[in-house]
Amino acid sequence: MLLATENLLINYTSTAMNVALSALVGDLRTTLTGVQSVISLYALVVAAFLITGSKVGARYGYRRVFVLGGGVFALGALVTAFGPRLPFTLLGWSLLQGLGVALMLPALVAMLTAAFTGADRTRALSTLAMTSGIGAAAGPVVGGLITGYLSWRVSFLLGAGVTLVVAGLVRRTADAGPVAVRPDGRRFDVLGVVLSTSGLALVVVATLFAGRYGLLRARQDFTVFGHTLLERGGLSPVALLSGVGLVVLAAFAWWERHLVRGGGDPLVRVSVLRNRTVRTGTSTQLMQVLVPNGALFLVPVFLQTTLGFDALRCGIVLLPTAVGLLVAAAPTARRVGRGRMSHRAAAMGSFAFMAAGCAAIAVLFSPRAQGLTAVGLALAPGVLLVGLGRGMATTITDLIQSAPPPEEVSDVTGLSRTGSYLGGAFGVALAGALLTPALLYAFEAGVGDSGVLSSAQKQQATRTLEQQVQITAASDDVLRAKVTTRGFTGAAADELVRINAQAREQALTVSVTGMAVLAFAGRLVARRIPPSPQLDRGSGVPSAPGRDS
Fold first, then answer.
1. Residue 531 and which of 91, 133, 235, 364 are 20 to 30 A apart at CA?
2. Secondary structure of 33-60 in HEC code, one letter for each residue
3. Does residue 243 sit within a domain?
């Protein structure tokens, strides 16, 4: 219960501040770009250090590292809550809280894996995954309420208080599993830390740039410290950075194998990926996070830009996601734990629900619907189905953690947690990468087909669109203000607003349909999961048929 509580808090923290951007900008006397940089850096720190956090826990004890991570996380929350300017937020939220999460997450998963076996482990790890979804879903609603009636700083104060209580209580409990002892004569893999963190950081930064620069062809100049490194129309920095990141990660994998052959203590044994259950389970988990994160990123974007919904009303519309997760998670865990459903069947079912949910959102969303009730009812079937899919996906952690022998649990934990976190980043990045080209194409097509705009106005609108630094979905009021500054008034301005509204609707349909296609791709990945290994309910060790390494 303690670990699930902290896991819920971590996931709540990751989404709660998305509704408080304006308040953060005003209180910290900064810009929206500055606040977005804080959020992006937090994601980068967590993803880059998860593998390292898992190894530290394996060497020095999971309980000790969890408590240490909790202290770092709470310190970061306090620095953020009382910090008057953006640099304090960067230190407290992005760096300290990011490092705290990277230490705590692998430790809490490993402790639960060691503390339970068989059906009990399935329920425990499924509950952990369920609290992740609930925390992320509750973030916008609870965060909106706290920000609106109190202050965004209260969320960080509450986070610090809860984490200190949890860490203090965990410190008094017996450590789960054997006490880790530092291997004699073997140094900590510092080079592995450098290679893994830098490689993952490059990949994460590339995903964060996807919406702005495009995946392959740069939509604008890529400038660093006033120097243009990549010109508009050439290679996108996304392709370049991700390519370099993959090369660095390949070097990391080579170095880890080299350490194993030389009798050293690697940061992670990449050989665990030879285990088919671990390999396909981790890939499935990444897709199970990617699809709903992408779909549930798109819906609030259009609710705010098309209907003018505030963050609280967006959160209310998305509540069926949490309901679906709660409805599906516990029954799925019971059936899997009792052997009445395989992990593979649960994973494939989760993607079927996600695909159906994305399709329902694409079909039922209508910008002509007015009011919270009408919009909520129209979107409820789709977001509920996505939630049901997330609920069925909660057993995948149990499959992955149950596959390796005890001595490889930390390796698998680090890799799977990193994969899950990268899935969330990739989901948002791919959703944005699908959204922007669809929006551009639909707007340009609408301008070209317009019978209201003159040839000169069409050329001016197209040229202005191509020169935009960053294209995002814009509300009618925002677009009208922009086109007015460009000299469009009267019927011409009304026509551009109409085209923009139609382009938004088409872009949402294309983007969410793309998420449905990715859900089908995830289902194909899940089909490769081997039949669930027959677990010894007393020991939790998979029998030989469950392993191929």
1. 133
2. HHHHHHHHHHHHHHHHHHHHHHHHHHHH
3. yes
